[in-house]
Amino acid sequence: MRYGIISTGPISSAFARALALTDGASVTAVASRELHSAQRFIEEHGLDDAAAFDDVAALCASPEVDAVYIASPNSLHAPHALIAIDAGKHVVLEKPAVWNPAQWDQVFQAAHDANVLIFEAARHLFEPAQQYILDELAGRRPVSVRMNYSQYSSRWNAVLAGEEPNIFSLAHGGGALVDLGIYAIYDAVYWFGEPDSLKYFPTMAPTGVDAAGTLILSYEDFDAVITIAKNGHAETPSDIVFGREALRLSSVQGIDRVTRYSADNSTLLYESGARPGTRTMPELMLFEAEFFTTMFTAHSEGGLTTEQQTRYRELTMLSRTVNDVCTKARQVAGIFFEGEAGGFTP
């Protein structure tokens, strides 16, 4: 499976390194706004046979590309995806895939009509720890859930200096909720389904997006409370409480340990083998890279199996629900990206 990569930032670098560890995958094209950036990326990653582009449409039109990984600024995800789909390429959209449900419907319908696959890169869904969690949740509901993802952003100092980096810009669809909170929202919806209602209490950055916040997802019998921050760091574990017993996760993504515990004892259910939080980004992205490559290859070699079709539909609708939850959460808190209406986006 031959991948074209759009954008040459750190996340693209990590994905390229993950693909290098994936059987049947290679990077054959790289695009950046500046041609020399794409050329430098190719050199740094030893992609001797890859072509450099400074035009997204040209990369997507290349006969040497089967699938396109899009990690451009959030504001460009939808238009870049539509270009790739129009060229008949499969698509991986770095999270958040798109801004709102209206964009989601447009992009995913285009992929359906073109008979290509499209995935949101929610990498943590493909981690081995997820199955252990699902097994523990089978047949029972929690009484409360507490999740945390607080990671000090390398761009926060620029905000404090009066700048507006893309990740903290309304024009580029930034903010803590869509950048970090989306991981916990994916977990909650994956494990428990769509919430009945929600509330979001953001701490605002001077650029107009949320720098941090507390999100409450309410279900019939419990609340999931999610704390997120890009202006501070905390390694607080996440707990799914069942009463006298609870499930503790080392994180909401890059989950290195899953432990069942009570006041009397604890049982380690899963351990990655690494000290929590020390696995590299290429290591974490390897699981999704292998999955995407398997799915794209199956599609090109005669079609998905029934099981793969079911998995694709599940992931597609999960992405749609997560997008809806993210959109409602930020908009109910008064956060609207540039050009969005002043009400819930359909």
Q: Report the β-strand fraction as a percent range.
A: 15-25%
Find the count of extended strands (DSSP E, 2+ residues).
Answer: 14
For the largest beta-sheet, the strand count, sense and barrel status come to: 8 strands, mixed
Alpha carbon gyration radius: 20 Å
Compact description:
With 346 residues, the chain is of the alpha/beta class.
Describe the structure.
- A hairpin with a 3-residue loop joins strand 11 and strand 12.
- The chain is an alpha/beta fold.
- It has helices at residues 10-20, 35-44, 56-61, 77-86, 101-114, 129-137, 156-160, 176-192, 281-300, 306-332, and strands at 2-6, 26-31, 51-53, 67-70, 90-94, 118-121, 144-150, 197-204, 210-218, 223-229, 238-241, 245-249, 257-262, 266-271.
- Helix 1 (10-20) crosses helix 9, helix 5 runs antiparallel to helix 10 (306-332) and helix 8 crosses helix 10 (306-332).
- It is globular.
- It is built from ten helices and 14 strands.
Describe the secondary structure blueprint for this structure.
Elements: E1 2-6, H1 10-20, E2 26-31, H2 35-44, E3 51-53, H3 56-61, E4 67-70, H4 77-86, E5 90-94, H5 101-114, E6 118-121, H6 129-137, E7 144-150, H7 156-160, H8 176-192, E8 197-204, E9 210-218, E10 223-229, E11 238-241, E12 245-249, E13 257-262, E14 266-271, H9 281-300, H10 306-332
Parallel strand pairs: 1-2, 1-4, 2-3, 4-5, 5-6, 7-10
Antiparallel strand pairs: 7-11, 8-9, 9-10, 11-12, 12-13, 13-14
Helix pairs in contact: 1-9, 4-5, 5-10, 8-10
